Amino acid sequence: MSIPLIVVADQSKARFFTVDSPEGELQEIHALEHDVARQKGSALASDRPGRSFDSGGQGRHAMSTSVEPHEQEAIRFAKQVDEEVNASCRKGSYNHLVVVAGSHFLGLLREALTNPEKLRVTEINKNLGQYDAREIRTHLPARL
């Protein structure tokens, strides 16, 4: 029997579920919180970007950051979710990973997931993090 590990995540929380049977109810086994994602951008960045000399003259201009603070925190959390998926796979006998997230965070998770166990991966582009397990189950395939 295929035992799925279901991850329902957004930029501030990831919940890990499993099911006993292909049509069974979700059972939450673990959750991760990333409270930093809820902070204001000014609280995440210590100061403004530095200044640089213009290459063709006497002028100076502000340097821009390549990644916004909230985006950097989302990337960091996606990597943390990947570590937790790997740890869960080492402990359990999962052979199917179902990732449920909104489009932006799903893309970050796609880049972060290393999938060392070569799990079969199903992606669902829905932001369901605020729902309870019963409501989440209604949005998943009937058979997992």
Task: Please describe what this structure looks like.
By secondary structure, the chain is an alpha/beta fold. It has a single domain (4-37, 68-139), classed as eRF1 domain 2 (Nucleotidyltransferase, domain 5, 2-Layer Sandwich). The chain has helices at 41-44, 69-91, 103-112, 133-139, and strands spanning 4-9, 13-18, 27-33, 51-53, 60-62, 96-101, 120-125. The strands form 2 sheets. The chain has a 5-stranded mixed β-sheet. A two-stranded antiparallel ribbon has the order 4-5. A hairpin with an 8-residue loop joins strand 2 (13-18) and strand 3. The longest helix has 23 residues, at 69-91.
Write the SSE topology.
Elements: E1 4-9, E2 13-18, E3 27-33, H1 41-44, E4 51-53, E5 60-62, H2 69-91, E6 96-101, H3 103-112, E7 120-125, H4 133-139
Parallel strand pairs: 1-6, 6-7
Antiparallel strand pairs: 1-2, 2-3, 4-5
- Order of secondary-structure elements: EEEHEEHEHEH
CATH superfamily: eRF1 domain 2
Q: Taking all residues together, what is the mean pLDDT?
A: 85
Could you give the count of β-strands? 7
What's the CATH class label? Alpha Beta
Roughly how much helix do the residues carry, as a percent range? 25-40%
The total tally of domains equals 1
CATH topology: Nucleotidyltransferase, domain 5
Low-confidence stretches: none
Q: Helices and strands: which structural class?
A: alpha/beta
Please indicate the percent range of residues in DSSP E strands (runs of 2 or more).
25-35%
| Contiguous helical run count | 4
Strand order of the largest sheet: 3-2-1-6-7
Beginning-to-end CA distance, first to last residue: 10 Å
Gross geometry: elongated
